[in-house]
Specification:
This protein is an alpha+beta fold. About 40% of the residues lie in helices and about 25% in strands. Helix 3 (about 105-110) crosses helix 4 and helix 5 (about 145-160) runs parallel beside helix 9. The radius of gyration is 18 Å and the shape is globular.
């Protein structure tokens, strides 16, 4: 069975018209490991990721480093959030493309377009839900469950279906994953090796992961239902409608346009296939 892209690259036509609609916006590219936003940044803007992954981290005066999260295609990042962190930084992982929209442009356009205002509010609410779920991961899950939850969410957000399984990019290092999950890197490596030995995942090439049996990965975390609910979108959102009107190219699995993550579960849940 040929691979089917679950998270397609957003159409340039819709993004271009969005950039024109919001004055002061610009499409920007950043190379691998390039700093996108630093703590010294005073610019007030919103970045909308189109391709790649952006890493968010903060370094305390003691030198302790914390990975705070990752932004994938469809996600939003406020520069003010990064600049207010102690030695905060947003860094490109692999090559990244994003739209940069000035706060004033967003505010002015949202005042004229209630639909855009609802779309932005909905996106912010979704990202807040993810942050709350991550707090639950850190506070209540054991080491193996944390790694499984991370891989499952990554699959739901960025996965490509191949047969009964899923393949997905892994742009972050194991050190990044360990910092994000509150573990040490040796623990993360041991758990990934155990998942590989059990056939839950495969590592066919550097920078990528294959999940041959999606249900087996789900069984490793008590939050599979919560993740499934978070990424399920049974109806088109205001975001989707907004970008559809802008002429964004759509595919059979693209339920979220440039803003929304596409729920992989909709594509592989047997209940959605009528079986």
């Amino acid at each position: 069975m040929p691979a089917r892209t679950i998270v397609p690259t957003p159409g340039r036509s819709g993004s271009s018209r969005f950039a024109k609609l919001l004055g002061g916006s610009a499409r920007t590219k950043s190379a691998d490991r390039e700093t996108v936003v630093a703590s010294q940044t005073r610019e007030r803007a919103i970045l909308i990721v189109e391709e790649g992954c952006i890493l968010l981290e903060s370094v305390l005066p003691s030198g302790r480093r914390q990975v705070l999260g990752f932004r994938f295609p469809g996600d939003m990042l406020c520069t003010a959030f990064v600049s207010n962190l102690p030695n905060g930084m947003a860094q490109a992982l692999r090559n990244v493309r994003f739209l940069k929209v000035q706060h004033r442009a967003i505010r002015d356009q949202a005042a004229r377009s209630p639909q855009l205002g609802r779309a932005m509010a909905g996106l912010a609410a979704t990202q807040a839900e993810r942050a709350n779920l991550h707090n639950l991961v850190l506070g209540q899950l054991n080491r193996q469950e944390r790694v499984a939850t991370f891989l499952l969410e990554l699959a739901l957000r960025t996965g490509t279906r191949v047969g009964e399984g899923v393949v997905m990019p892994l742009p972050m290092t194991r050190n990044h994953i360990a910092d994000y999950l509150g573990l040490n890197v040796d623990t993360v490596s041991r758990i990934i090796s155990a998942f590989k030995a059990d056939g839950i995942i495969r590592l066919p090439a550097p920078g990528g992961v294959e999940v041959p049996d999606f249900a087996a990965l789900e069984a490793q975390t008590p939050l599979s239902d919560a993740l499934r609910a978070l990424y399920r979108e049974d109806e088109q959102s205001d975001v989707d409608t907004f970008f559809a009107r802008l002429g964004a190219q759509k595919s059979g699995y693209d339920h979220g346009g440039i803003f929304g993550p596409i729920p992989l579960w909709n594509a592989i849940d047997p209940r959605d296939q009528g079986t």
